[in-house]
Amino acid sequence: MTSSAKAKYLQIADDLATQIRSGALKPGTPVPSETELMTRYSVASGTVRKAVAELRAAQLIETHHGRGSFVRSRPPVQRKSSDRFRRAHRKAGKAAYLAEAEQSGGTPSVNVLYVGPVDAPAEIAERLNVTTGTKVLARKRRYFRDGIPTEEATSYLPWDVVKDIPEMFAENPGGGGIYARLEEHGHMLAEFVETVKARLATKAEATALALSPGAPVIHLVRSAFSDDGRVVEVCDTTMAADQFVLDYRFPARD
Question: What residues does the HTH gntR-type domain cover (predicted)?
Fold first, then answer.
């Protein structure tokens, strides 16, 4: 590609980005069609497609197959901090996601996709210190803020820990969520360990979270330790990367 051709598609992308950020192109509205942009800027279709790809990479627009490209209309960024696991939130009847989403100013909601037994996948089994394929309880949820999906999470819990806690098998485990139920039944939580990775969304993840193809996601896997040192839950979470800031506070050590 010549430098002039590159400069042209970057100019188009900059023009459209300015219109989006100024509000001239409002959230949820369609981006001008390829034909319109070709005429407006006197360029070939390939140049327009590269400009649109730039906007998609910058997370300013999202493309839906068969419908075209639209200005993104996603809720404000939600700060995901270590504060979300405070016992005070559970005692107030708020699970971590709900407490956090409310602090960000959005209206949270949850869609429970599955609750029931599964064979523990290898990575999960390793974290739970059980054999791969061991029966565990899985709780899969999709989380929304202002009606827009922001993350999908599956909790895996040891069967012997949850089998006598009937609320764990209900779609709504009650105020404070599953951590409150664990503590009520003697599994006091002492520590959380999180592993965080950034990668591109799979096709299934992009569909579930209403992302453009190839959009970035945050993949977070958390282990919850009880005060006797046992891992009583592993939560495997995929988050829309543009919707979260990970904010942790921890003590300085010698």
Answer: 6-74
Evaluate whether residue 178 is within a structural domain. Answer: yes
The residue type of 203 is: K
Q: What is the per-residue pLDDT across 96-141, written as a single tens digit (0 to 9) for each?
A: 766 676 666 677 889 999 999 999 999 999 999 999 999 999 999 9
Alpha carbon of 254 to those of 82, 128, 229, 251: distances in Å? Answer: 21, 30, 23, 10
Domain count, the chain: 2
Same domain, 137 and 238: yes
Does a structural domain hold residue 252? Answer: no
Is 24 found in the same domain as 140?
no
Q: What is the CA radius of gyration of the chain?
A: 22
Could you list the residue range(s) of the whole structural domain that residue 192 is in?
A: 77-247
- Please check whether residue 101 is in contact with residue 146, taking contact to mean a CB–CB distance below 8 angstroms: no
| Residue 110 shares a structural domain with residue 176 | yes
In whole angstroms, give the CA distance from residue 50 to residue 74: 23
12 in a domain, yes or no?
yes
pLDDT in tens, 210-233: 887 778 899 999 999 999 999 999
Strand 78-81, strand 244-247: pairing: parallel
Number of H helices, E strands in the chain: 9, 10
pTM over 0.90: no
